[in-house]
Amino acid sequence: MERWEARWASSKQRYAELSTVTLVPCWSTPSLRFCTSELKTHIIRAELRRRFKGMQVVNVTGVRRQESAARAKGSIADRDGDGIINWRPISDWSVAEVFSYIAHRGLSAHMAYATFGMSRVSCRYCIMSNIDDLKAASAQEEARPLYRRMVQLEIDSSFAFQGSRWLGDIAPQLLSEEMREALALARHRAILRKDIEGQITKPMLYVKGWPTRMLTDDEAAILSSVRNKVTEIYGFESQCLTVDSIHQRYADLMSERDRRAA
User: What is the model's pLDDT at position 68?
Assistant: First the structure.
């Protein structure tokens, strides 16, 4: 949660100083799961390298082809960039076969399934969760303070937790009337932002190594208009709102990039 909140604070700052062309969402996404890499994968791999230095590590997981289109194409075993062998021995099992085997061995299913009725084990509110799992999480008393904190970030950022699905819609009865009204305003602000930022042409958008060139006067005029409108609807204290100041900012950024390259 702290990472998402810090990401929004950074997004606001970067936008205000024109270090990015559009506002950057605060949430993780299926294609940018920094939550998984930073809080799980990198930490585990670093510990494995430390604990089993010089040894071959085999990572055994319960990933199955039935879970997603991407996993359906995966191999049963492969070796990753760290030299770790990933083995997925139940790739071709069905859900029924998994739970049947658990029962056959006299084991109990994970509490996420057995107690909370979830379809998958993950964070309480995961960007990959389906709507039923999000509702199941919200039904737990201990998860409700986190739920409200996450909805507050939706309100502050005007970015929905799951792209087009707002977490605040999952259990609105857990929100105060003030939060429900603020969420409605955030949704409206999101529509305005998308419409405004839609004026930015594709060649103007952020890419690796940005900025790669100076803007034309017409492009700078578009960006000036967009930044003034987004700044107004969010109440930011933004810099570089005029054509001249945008040109100067781009020139400074390109000079800084050249200095670093040198």
Answer: 86
Distance between CA 222 and CA 94 in Å, rounded?
53
Residue 230 near residue 198, CB atoms below 8 Å:
no
Q: How far is CA 54 from CA 48, 49, 75, in A?
A: 10, 8, 25
Q: Which residues 6+ apart lie within 8 Å of 241 measured at CB?
A: 224, 227, 228, 231
> Whole-angstrom Cα distance, residue 244 to residue 224?
9
Indicate the SS3 state at residue 32: strand
DSSP tag of 237: -
Across the chain, the runs of DSSP E, i.e. the strands, are 58-60, 77-79, 85-87
d(CA 214, CA 254): 8
Q: Residue 137: name the closest of 107, 116, 162, 108 by CA.
A: 116
Angle (CA) 215 205 152, round 5°: 130
Cβ-based neighbours of 222, under 8 Å, separated by 6 or more: 199, 200, 201, 204
How large is the C-alpha radius of gyration of the chain?
23
Helix, strand, coil in percent for the chain, rounding step 5: 55, 5, 40
Query: pLDDT tens for residues 31-88?
Result: 888 888 888 889 999 999 899 999 999 999 999 999 888 899 999 999 988 889 999 9
CB 83, CB 97: distance < 8 Å: no
Gap between the Cα atoms of 28 and 127, Å rounded: 7
Q: Are 25 and 54 in contact (CB under 8 A)?
A: no
Q: From CA 226, how far away is CA 220, in angstroms rounded?
A: 10
